[in-house]
Structures are given as structure tokens and as C-alpha cells.
Amino acid sequence: APMRLHLKISRRGLASRFPGQGARNLRRLSQPKRESIEQGRRRFLIGSPCATGILTVITLYSLMASTPIRIGLISDTHDLLRPAAKRALNGVEHILHAGDICGGDVLAELANIAPVTAVRGNNDRGAWAGKLRETELVEIGGISIYILHDLSALDIDPRAAGVHAVISGHSHQPLVEERDGVLFVNPGSAGPRRFSLPISLGFIEIAAGKVSASLLTLQT
């Protein structure tokens, strides 16, 4: 079984490693520095302040998993966590919520299924939402996954930053596509129906250092 580490780095620590406009500095790192970061990626933390918030790298699995890892993707629940969504997510190793949660109870329910990493969406307000960042970068099974709510706010070059997958929400439109070697996934909305768009969520599977994604339309 993979060794699990739950680590975070402080705002001060991030700033000391990458002072200034974080994402741009990451792209400007010298090649030796990038290689040094890559070599230590599974056991150390890198990060930088971003224009939209603090980018935090959380190393969740420090060793490459010997068996496939299944991660649940959910977004735009808008304070509604459907029983069908909970059933679909049962058995995943981790859950990533791409924002517009609209209630702390949703995160608490998801946490009963698996560990949760969530970002703040444009409709997430109040004391509970203040604890969430606008972006997160997690590493699971040797794969780096960048999470934000609105893809139009993406302020890094994922490929240059060593990111393998970008997860977003906001549009309520499910999508899986590859761009320049990076996997982009929008699981759609699992909350109240919007227009004629489907009620959906998604999954990422990590195996042998490779990542793939799928979408699931929920029967409601």
C-alpha cells in the first residue's frame, strides 16, 4: 500500500521559496532547479503565491502506488449532495471538489466517504468558505493535479509547472480533453439541474504513473 502523507506548507514558507508572482516565477526557474523540484516531488512540497490565491502542494501519496488509485471528482453541488452522487463516490481513495459547494455540510458528508480537497467557488461565501483556497495542487500516486473553480482564471502554464491534470467546474458542462499533454476535466454539476445540462460527476484513475479520466451521468 502507498505511504500516505498529509503535509502543508505555510504562506511564509511558500513566499520564501518562490517570492513574487508565484506561477510566473515557477515557469522562470532554471532547468537545474526544475529538475531538483521534480526529483523531490514525491517527498517534498513546492508552491507559490498565485494571483488568485495560495497554491499549495499537498503530497498525499509519497510512493508510487502498486495498484490503481481512483479519485472522485465533483463540482457545483450548490448545497445539494444527492444520494446518487454519494453512492457513485463510494470506494474512491480521495475526492476533489472544484467549488460552488455552497455549504459546509456538503464537505462533511463527502468526508465520510473519503478525504476531501476542495477549492472555493464564486458562490462560496461565509466563515466556512473562508477556510478554502481558490486553487489547490495535489499530488497523488506521482501525478500532480491542479484544482480551481473557473478554468478561465487559470494563471499557470500547467505543462511548464509539471501538472498532469487540471480539474475545474463553474460551467456545469462535463468535459474531458487533453491539451498539450495535460488532461483537463470538468466533472459537470452534481447539484440542482441547470437548464438541460446533465447531472454528473467524474473520476480520475492513476495507474503506473499515468492518469485517465471518465464522466458519469447520474440518474435522478
Give a verbal description of the structure:
The protein has helices at 11-17, 22-28, 31-39, 83-89, 104-111, and strands spanning 48-50, 53-55, 57-59, 69-74, 94-97, 116-118, 135-140, 143-148, 165-167, 175-179, 182-186, 200-207, 210-217. The longest helix has 9 residues, at 31-39. The strands form three sheets. The protein has a six-stranded mixed beta sheet, with no helix packed on it. It has 220 residues and is of the alpha/beta class.
Which percent band covers the strand fraction? 25-35%
Radius of gyration, CA atoms, in whole angstroms: 17 Å
Number of helices: 5
Shape: globular
| Order of H and E elements | HHHEEEEHEHEEEEEEEE
Number of strands: 13
| Widest beta sheet: strand line-up | 3-7-8-9-11-10
How much helix is in the residues? Answer: 10-25%
Which structural class matches the secondary elements?
alpha/beta
Unreliable stretches (pLDDT < 50, length at least 5) are: 1-54, 61-65
Biggest sheet details? 6 strands, mixed
Which key terms come to mind for this protein?
5-stranded mixed β-sheet, 17% helix, alpha/beta, 29% strand, 6-stranded mixed β-sheet, 220 residues, globular
Q: What's the short version?
A:
The protein has helices spanning 11-17, 22-28, 31-39, 83-89, 104-111, and strands at residues 48-50, 53-55, 57-59, 69-74, 94-97, 116-118, 135-140, 143-148, 165-167, 175-179, 182-186, 200-207, 210-217.
